[in-house]
Design brief:
It is built from 23 helices and 15 strands. The protein is α/β, with parallel strands linked by helices. The longest helix is centred in the last third of the chain and has 30 residues. This is Carboxylic ester hydrolase.
Length: 698
Amino acid sequence: MDEDQDGEDAAQQVRADHLPLDRRLASSGGGGEDDEEVEVTVEESLWGAVGEAPPPAPAAPHTQHEDAAGAAPARPAHRKRSNQRRSAQGQGGSPPHSPHTFNQTQPPPPPNYDHDPLVVMTKKGRVRGVTLRAATGKEVDAWLGIPYAQKPIGPLRFRHPRPVDSWDVTGHEIYNATKQPNSCVQIIDTLFGDFPGATMWNPNTPLNEDCLYVSVHAPRPRPRNAAVMVWVFGGGFYSGTSTLDVYDPSILVSEERVIVVSMQYRVASLGFLFFDTTDVPGNAGLFDQLMALQWVHDNIHAFGGNPNNITLFGESAGAVAVSIHLLSPLSRNLFSQAIMESGSPTAPWAIISREESILRGLRLAEAVGCPNPTRGNLPAVIRCLRNTSAETLVEKEWGTLGICEFPFVPVIDGSFLDEMPQKSLATRNFKKTNILMGSNTEEGYYFILYYLTELFRKEEDVYVSRDDFLMAVRELNPYVNPVARQAIVFEYTDWLNPDDSTRNRDALDKMVGDYHFTCNVNEFAHRYAETGNNVYMYYFKHRSLNNPWPSWTGVMHADEINYVFGEALNPKLKYHPLEAELSKRMMRYWANFAKTGNPSMSEDGSWTSTYWPVHTAYGREYLTLDTNSTETGRGPRLKQCAFWKKYLPQLIAATSNMHSSECSGAAGPAPPAPPAMLLAVVLAVLALALGGQRAADP
C-alpha cells in the first residue's frame, strides 16, 4: 500500500478515535457484532497503517480524553465499552445512536468553560489542567503532557516531527493534561546502584517512543502577559527527561510569577541518528524542540504568557541546544533571549561531523545485527533499524568512546545548522540578544567518576599519585599527539608540589572541566560580548551541605540546578537557611532576566541588593554565586582557557605530523618522552606562550 495513503488513512482513524466512543459507534453504523472493528485506539490506528503491532501501553496512561458534557473517565473510553452496551440494552436494547434515537434527541449545547481556569483553549483543542501545591505551600496550575507532535513511531521513527492533529473535532472534547508524560526511550544509569546522587537523573516516568509532550506551569492567580521560561533538559543528548523532581518548576513559578514550559524531546539514536536521507535526516531531537517552541509561541497566550517574551534556559546538553537555537535561522525568531548553564555549542562533544555521525550509525546497525551495514545498503539498514526495538537501539549504541563523548549528538545537517558554531560566532551569524551563562567550579569530576571508575571510586579517600596522574592525562586526552599531551601535563602540574596526590586529583577535574565546559562557555560569552549584546556571566561556587557525593567532588556539574528551581526552599530536604537564601537570590536573578533582560532589575524597576555587572569583551566580568560571597571577578580561569583556545591549537598545528597512539586503539601509560622531546616541548611552550601573551586579549 502507498505510504502516503497509509498516513492519510491513519490520520483519519486518529481523528475518529479522538471522538467519544458513542460517536465512533454511530459513525460505523451502530452496535452489533461489528462493534469490535470500531474498537481501535490512537496507537493501534497509527501502527495499523504500517502493518505492525502497536508498542506496549505505558504502565500509567497519561493521555485521557473526556467529553465536554461530563467528567474524565477513570479509564480510557474503549475500556468501558461493555458498560455502555449494557446501559443501552437496559433502555430497550436499541443501539446507543440508532436513527430513531438520534431524531428524538437534540444534541446538548456546548458547555461554557469561560470561568474554569483549568480548561484552556489551545490551537488543537481544549486542555484540562490540575492545581498543584508546591513544597512551600503555594499553589500553581499545571497542564502536564500536552502533545505537540504526532507520535514518532513506525515510519515516523528517526524522522523530523509532524504536527499533532486536533483532538477537538466536535467542539466537545477536552484533553486531560493532568499526568506527567512519558520519558523518551533511553538507557538507565546503574553504575552506582541506588546511590541517590546518580539515580536522581534517571527517568521517573515510563519510557516510550510516544513522548513528544510539553507541560505548562502557571502561577495562581493567573497572570496576563507574563514572562515565559522554556526549560530544555540536559543529559548528553543520550538521556534526560523534563519530569525529574529536580526540574519541578512549582517553586520557581509561585515565587517569581513566571510561566515555565518544559518539553520532552527524543534523545540517543532515536533523536540524533543521521544518514543524510529523507528517512533519517538527523537532528530529529532539535526539530522536536523547534516544534515545541512553535507550540509555545502559538499557544502560551491562552495560559497567561507573553509570546513575545520567551526565554530559553537549559543546562549541559540542554544549554548546548539553547545555544544552537541562537545560531539556527529556523528557531531564532521563536524566542527572545537565552540562559545557558554549563554548556556551549563550541564544546568538543556538542557537535560531530556528518562523516563521523554516519559511521556511528553504521556501527550501531552492526551492533544490533543488521545484515551488510554499509553505505551502499542504507535503505535496508534503515528498515532494519526501524524494526529493531527502541530499547535495543539505546542499549547497543555505546561503543568505544572517550570521556564526554556521546554516541549521537547534533550534526551540521544543512537544514537546522549549516555551518560549525565556531564559524557562526566568528562571522556573527547568530541571534543578537541578551544572554546569561556560566559554569561551576568542579565541572569535571562527574564525568571522571564514570570514565576512570577504578581510579576514582565513590569514596572519601581518593588520591592520585604522579604516575596515575600521567596515565589519566593520557586516558582523558586520547586524540592529541605526544607533544600536545606533554603540554597538558605541564599546564596542569603544580610544580611546587608535583607529587601531591590531592593536587594531582583536583588538577584532573580542572583539566576536564576547563576543556569540555568552562572555556567553551567563556568563548561563547566573549563572542557575544564583542557584538555589543548584554551578556551576564556567573561562576557557581557553592557545595550543598546535603550533597551525597564525596566531599572532594566539590561543586559538580549540574549542582546549580537545585537552586535555580528552588529545591533549597523545600523544608523536607533540609537545606541550610543560607542555601535557601542563595536559591531565592538565583531564582530572582533568572526571573528578572526573563522579565527585563537584566538579572539585577525587576519589572517594577527595583534593583537587587547585589549588582550583577555586564560581561564585557574587555573586562570579562562575572558574578560569584555562593552563600558567603557576591564578589565579582574576571574570567573565570582566563589563563587555562587561553591555553586550550589559543596555545594548544597552535602547538598541535605545529606538530601535526606526530600522531597519538591512542587513535589506533593503543592503551596503557605513555612511555617516557626522550629528553630531546621534552626540551622541544618546553621551548615550544615558552615560545608560544610568549607570543600568545603579546597577542592575548586583556
